[in-house]
Specification:
Layout lengths: L1 H4 L4 H29 L11
């Protein structure tokens, strides 16, 4: 952000940010899918009834 504010071209930086956000979101989606398959019973937190 600092370089963009100093006048550098923003297109390359925005593309870099978008690509990495896609990678991160895809990782979270697949991680949640794997966790849902391996642990079907949710863990109840807190005091037991």
């Amino acid at each position: 952000m600092f370089l963009i504010a100093r006048g550098y071209e923003a297109g390359g930086y925005i593309a870099f940010i978008v690509v990495h956000l896609i990678i991160i979101v895809t990782g979270f989606v697949f991680a949640r899918a794997v966790l849902a398959e391996t642990d079907p019973a949710p863990v109840q937190m807190g005091m037991a009834d």
